[in-house]
Structure formats: C-alpha cells, structure tokens
C-alpha cells in the first residue's frame, strides 16, 4: 500500500512538473507580458481580506483560511481560491468557502469591484448577519453564486434578477433572510439559465406556491427546505 501511494504521488508530481514546465515555455514566447494579476484586482482582494478577521469558529464544515496566502507584491492569480483569466489578469473565480472569514460584508466592499467574476463562493463563513447587498446584482457574468451557511440576513435584493447568466444559486442556511414576492417573480422571469436553486431557510412565506411554476425550465434541482 505504502509503495503504491508513493509511486502515485511521484507520478502526480512529475505530471504537475511537466505541466508547469510547458506553461512556462509557452508563456515565455508570448508578446504580452501581462499574464499575472491586474493591479486593481490585487488591490481589491487585499482590501477585501483586510476587512475581515480570521476566526476559527467562523466556519463549521471545513476550515481553510485561504486569504492567509494573499500577500502584497505577489501575483494574485496564484493566491489560494483565486482564478484569473490568463490574457487579461482579471479575477474570474473566487472560491472562499470555509475561509474562517468573520466580519460584516458592507455594500462598499471592494469585492464588488471584481466585475469580471463568473464564479463566487463565500459559503461557510461568518458575515455577522450582513444584509445581502444589492451590489451582488453587478456581477453580470456570474454563473455560480454560493452564499450558503454564512450568516447573511435581510431581504434578498430584487437586483438578483440582473444575474441572468446564473446557472447555480445557493442562499441556503443563513440567518433567516427573506425573499419578497416581487423579487421572486423578477428572479424567476429573468434567471432563465438556472439549473440549481437552493433556498433552504429563506423566508418565502409571502411567495405564492404557484409562482414557482415560472422558474426556468432548465431547472433540475430545487431545494426549499424550511422556507
Ligand atoms: C514564438 O514566437 C515567434 C514570433 O512571434 C513565433 O514565430 C514562434 O512560432 C513562437 N513559438 C512558439 C513555440 O509558439
Ligand atoms: C469568533 O466568532 C464567534 C462566533 O462564531 C464570536 O462569538 C467570537 O466573539 C469571535 N471572536 C473574535 C475574536 O472575534
Ligand atoms: C464602508 O461602509 C461602512 C458602513 O457604512 C463604513 O463603516 C466603512 O468605513 C466604509 N468603508 C470604506 C472603505 O468606505
Ligand atoms: C462578460 O462575458 C463576455 C463574454 O465572455 C465578455 O465579452 C465581457 O467582457 C464580460 N464582462 C465582464 C464585465 O467581465
Ligand atoms: C454551497 O456551499 C456549501 C458549503 O460549502 C456546499 O455544501 C454546497 O454544496 C454548495 N452549493 C452548491 C449549489 O454548490
Ligand atoms: C434581466 O436581465 C437583463 C440582463 O441580461 C437585464 O438587462 C434586465 O434588466 C433584467 N430584468 C430584470 C427584471 O431584472
Ligand atoms: C408568471 O409570470 C407571468 C409574467 O410575468 C405572470 O403574468 C404570471 O402571473 C406568473 N405566473 C405565476 C403562477 O406566478
């Protein structure tokens, strides 16, 4: 068993090395030098990081304080949880699930200047009953948004209906946020790509069950436990 594990890990590291080697070669021949993080993106991420503390009881299901690897002067595209578009150096994915983030997510957060995001996962952190900001509606290219298990509260903003490319939306298990009928209807009308919708624990008591019929015909998974 030990032998197999060893050779498997050696094989993996050789493959990783080869991939790295190839990337280095092909990028060294590229005329555009900007394969690394765009400066404004790096700044936004660092300010976002600075607005939270790391609290070991902030994440319940797993613990991975990703922002600790975020250091000024290094390429943000290599930071834990950050994925960039190689050509432009803009951040397209941010996965901060279980990152032990503790603090309020204000509408003026620099998170919202990362306009090119396609995937955003802030699940399993502690945002201290922050209201879910209307600013989330600015992420026009977002296909995946996960805000579950993160102590968000307040109304789900009607601006969520602007996220017309969303394929997956998870707002479950927060501090009893509510979804008003008007917001739900706009969302159901405009989020036509939606395949996965999880709203467990969201107060939808005013939403008429009938209006669920207007949800995307692409929908393949719907979780409404305790709504
Ligand atoms: C490197 O760039 C040169 C000049 O643009 C080009 O002729 C050559 O094919 C490139 N080599 C590789 C391996 O991409
Ligand atoms: C850490 O989070 C818990 C709640 O999960 C809170 O009670 C505690 O005060 C926090 N500690 C610090 C140092 O902020
Ligand atoms: C963001 O808004 C909060 C709450 O209104 C405020 O306390 C904080 O100073 C603001 N931060 C910046 C950078 O403007
Ligand atoms: C959204 O995606 C389209 C198509 O890929 C792209 O042209 C556009 O620049 C993107 N917008 C933002 C804000 O990233
Ligand atoms: C959202 O995040 C939670 C916790 O990290 C995870 O269990 C869940 O599967 C995610 N939801 C989706 C739709 O991916
Ligand atoms: C629906 O989404 C589009 C963007 O694709 C946006 O322009 C429009 O305002 C949205 N409508 C509503 C009701 O939010
Ligand atoms: C579905 O949407 C249409 C168009 O907005 C609306 O007229 C209708 O009442 C909605 N149906 C339900 C069951 O909510």
CATH class group: Alpha Beta
Strand order of the largest sheet: 2-3-5-7-9-10-11
Integer average pLDDT: 89
Q: Terminal Cα separation, in Å?
A: 48 Å
Would you identify the CATH H-level superfamily? Ribonuclease Inhibitor
CATH topology: Leucine-rich repeat, LRR (right-handed beta-alpha superhelix)
Give the helices and strands as they follow along the chain: HHEEEEEEEEEHEE
> Sheet with the most strands?
7 strands, mixed
Q: How many separate structural domains?
A: 1
Q: Name the poorly predicted regions.
A: 21-34
Overall structural class, as computed from helix and strand content, comes to alpha/beta
Number of strands: 11
Global shape: globular
User: What is the helix tally?
Assistant: 3
Helix fraction bin: 10-25%
The distinct bound ligands, ions and cofactors come out as:
2-acetamido-2-deoxy-beta-D-glucopyranose
> What's the gyration radius in Å?
20 Å
Could you tell me the strand content as a percent range?
A: 5-15%
CATH architecture: Alpha-Beta Horseshoe
Signal peptide: 1-26
Organism: Salix udensis
Main location: membrane
Protein name: Leucine-rich repeat-containing N-terminal plant-type domain-containing protein
List the helices and strands and how they pair.
Elements: H1 2-28, H2 39-50, E1 53-54, E2 82-84, E3 91-95, E4 101-102, E5 119-121, E6 130-131, E7 144-146, E8 152-153, E9 168-170, H3 181-190, E10 196-198, E11 221-223
The structure holds 2-acetamido-2-deoxy-beta-D-glucopyranose (7 copies).
Residues 61, 97, 123-124, 146, 148-149, 168, 170, 196, 198 line the site of one 2-acetamido-2-deoxy-beta-D-glucopyranose.
């Amino acid at each position: 068993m030990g032998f197999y594990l060893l050779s498997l890990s050696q094989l993996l590291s050789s493959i990783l090395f080869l991939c790295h080697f190839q990337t280095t070669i092909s990028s060294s021949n590229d005329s555009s030098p900007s394969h690394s993080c765009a400066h404004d993106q790096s700044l936004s991420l660092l300010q976002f990081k600075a607005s939270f503390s790391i609290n070991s009881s902030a994440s319940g299901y797993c613990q991975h304080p990703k922002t600790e690897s975020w250091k000024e002067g290094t390429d943000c595209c290599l930071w834990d949880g950050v994925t960039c578009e190689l050509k432009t150096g803009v951040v397209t994915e941010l996965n901060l699930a279980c990152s032990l983030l503790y603090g309020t997510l204000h509408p003026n957060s620099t998170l919202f200047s990362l306009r090119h995001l396609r995937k955003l996962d802030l699940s399993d952190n502690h945002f201290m009953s922050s209201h879910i900001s209307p600013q989330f509606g600015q992420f026009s290219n977002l296909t995946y948004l996960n805000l579950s298990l993160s102590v968000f509260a307040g109304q789900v903003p009607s601006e969520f209906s602007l996220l017309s490319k969303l394929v997956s939306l998870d707002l479950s298990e927060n501090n009893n946020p509510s979804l008003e009928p008007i917001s739900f209807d706009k969302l159901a009308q405009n989020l036509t790509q939606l395949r996965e919708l999880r709203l467990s624990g969201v107060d939808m008591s005013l939403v008429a069950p009938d209006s669920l019929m207007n949800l995307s015909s692409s929908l393949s998974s719907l979780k409404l436990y305790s709504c």
